[in-house]
Amino acid sequence: MSTVNLVYFSWVRERIGRPEETLELPADVVTVADLLDHLKSRGGEYAAAFEHQNVIRAAINQEHVEHGEPIAGAREIALFPPMTGG
Amino acid sequence: MSTVNLVYFSWVRERIGRPEETLELPADVVTVADLLDHLKSRGGEYAAAFEHQNVIRAAINQEHVEHGEPIAGAREIALFPPMTGG
Amino acid sequence: MAPAPVNIRVQRDDFDIAVEIAALCRDRTDIGAVVTFSGLCRDEAGALSALELEHYPGMAEAEIERICQDAVERFGLQAATAIHRFGGMEPGANIVLVIAAAPHRQAAFDGANFIMDFLKTSAPFWKKEHRTDGSAGDWISAKDADDDARDRWARG
Amino acid sequence: MAPAPVNIRVQRDDFDIAVEIAALCRDRTDIGAVVTFSGLCRDEAGALSALELEHYPGMAEAEIERICQDAVERFGLQAATAIHRFGGMEPGANIVLVIAAAPHRQAAFDGANFIMDFLKTSAPFWKKEHRTDGSAGDWISAKDADDDARDRWARG
User: Fold this and answer.
1) pLDDT at residue D156, rounded to an integer
2) Measured between alpha carbons, how far is D59 from D65 in angstroms, rounded to an integer?
3) pLDDT band for position C1 (50/70/90)?
4) How far apart, in Å, do the first and last CA atoms of chain C sit?
5) ipTM of the complex
6) Angle C81-C84-C89 (CA atoms, 0-180°, nearest 5)?
7) Residue B86 in domain
8) Residue D122 belongs to what H/E stretch?
9) A60 is in which domain, residue-wise?
10) Cβ C28–D109 below 8 Å, yes or no?
């Protein structure tokens, strides 16, 4: 088990209903994709937030990463929709 | 014979030694190129100003024209080097 | 040569373009071209009452800094400034300012354009619309055209 | 729709970018993007003491107006401003300002870039250098690169 801080933005945050949380992750959650599967398996608001998993963007320690990126050593993982700034 | 106002800028003005003048042109001066030939034939400062005739730009009544443009009806013909504003 | 100064800010307050240009050019006589881009909140033909800009504090600054440093290196910019606001803003309000300075004009144009394209697609900001008809605000969707605009800068 | 306001000035005095942007955006909430270009006098690594800008009064304004109207039509600009100074100017001084406003960013970038490329090659201005070593000033030569920059806008 490892502990990770998750932060959510935009409609991911709204659907989950909180801006951040700390979770214990099982050892078989290795990549960002595994994390998204794990969260969806919790059902309810998580299933709604991550329904279209491929549109979700991720950042580890405040840098963009692909879904295949290992999350080992991550202090903070952010999950959010495509950005619309500028 | 027709009368035309000529205006000069930049090193064309400096070489000719005046910013403008009014000239009587013979009837066989039909185009801008004819005008440049006619001025060059006057020698001295004109020959120096229009030595490299192909780099000279012209405007008739404050609009850019090519050397082949007829000058009939021109109130003001300007002769100058390539522009370097901006 | 000193590294090109890059000035990044993420703030709730408005900005003053003249002040930012003056800061970037101060005591310098080697800059030949300054391009600024300002992005404003549009009223969408009267349908929009306000935009709300959410951001990821910390990462927003870090990502904009990375983008600006890339632009400095790629286009030989002499200086770059990028300011992105967050919070609520009404139609007509400033949202973002980018300034690029270079010896010659095309580098300044390309630098500012590049920064904006990456800012749109990589900087962690999200816009929510509030509509004048009182209907629930929607999050603005990302546009494929913005990804295409970014991808034209891909090299080789 | 009202025609896009185009504001042209050829003047000896300096300009204030913030004032010009404010004038162009006043009472409007439909503008999404404003790009400004300012061209400054560079010191050429200390070799230049001043530039002198000569212009063709009347034609300068007319030609800049034609260029700006072309840009408005081609890129769908909502407004455009172009101010070109003449007379003597020291390193660090403003020479030219172009502003293009549009609903979206690429039109504003392209509009300002287009206006600058044509201004460089078609507006009747000539620059003479005064050098710090006291040698006689030379007229700056036109650059082939400027013609190439203009020609990339040729259509079809």
Assistant:
1) 67
2) 10
3) low
4) 29
5) 0.94
6) 145
7) no
8) helix D105-122
9) 2-80
10) no
What domain count does chain B have?
Answer: 1
How many separate domains does chain C show?
1
Those residues with Cβ within 8 angstroms of residue C59's Cβ, 6 or more apart along the chain or in another chain? A59, A62, A63, A78, C124
A13: nearest CA partner in chain C: C54
CATH number at residue B65: 3.10.20.30
Report percent pLDDT > 90 for chain D: 88
Size of interface B-D (CB pairs under 8 A): 70
Whether C22 contacts C94, CB under 8 Å: no
Taking a C-beta distance cutoff of 8 angstroms, is the pair D86, D12 a contact?
yes
Percent of chain D residues past pLDDT 70, beyond the cut: 97
Q: Is residue B55 part of a domain?
A: yes
Specify the pLDDT at position D3: 80
- Structural domain includes residue B85: no
- Enumerate the residues of chain C whose CB falls inside 8 A of the CB of residue A77: none
Are D39 and B86 in contact (CB < 8 Å)?
A: yes
Question: Which amino acid does the sequence have at C153?
Answer: W
Residue D129's φ and ψ, nearest 5 degrees, are -95, 140
Residue D1 domain-assigned? no
C43 to D37: CB separation less than 8 angstroms, yes or no: no
- Give how far Cα B20 sits from Cα of B6, B10, C134, D52, D152, Å: 5, 12, 67, 20, 35
Chain D residues with CB-CB distance to B83 below 8 A: 120-126, 142
Q: Is the pTM of this model over 0.90?
A: yes
Residue B71 lies in a domain: yes
Domain presence at residue C96: yes
CB contacts, 8 Å: D108 with chain C: 37
Domain range spanning residue D74?
A: 6-155
D11 class by beta-carbon count within 10 Å (0-12 exposed, 13-18 middle, 19+ buried): exposed
Share of chain A above pLDDT 70, in %: 99
3-state secondary structure of A23: strand
Position B30 pLDDT exceeds 70: yes
Which residue in the set C54, C84, C116 is minimally distant from A10, CB to CB?
Answer: C54
Digit-coded pLDDT (tens) for D11-50: 999 999 999 999 999 989 999 999 999 999 999 888 999 9
Which amino acid appears at position D68 of this protein?
Answer: C
CATH for D29: 3.90.1170.40
In D, residues 77-136, which contact B (CB 8 Å cutoff)? 84, 95-96, 116, 119-128
Determine D/C contact with 3+ CB pairs under 8 A as the test: yes
Cα D73–chain centre separation: 18
For C125, the closest of A7, A59, A83 (CB atoms) is A83
pLDDT at C156: 67
Strands C79-85 and C6-11 turn out to be parallel
What single DSSP character describes residue A62? T
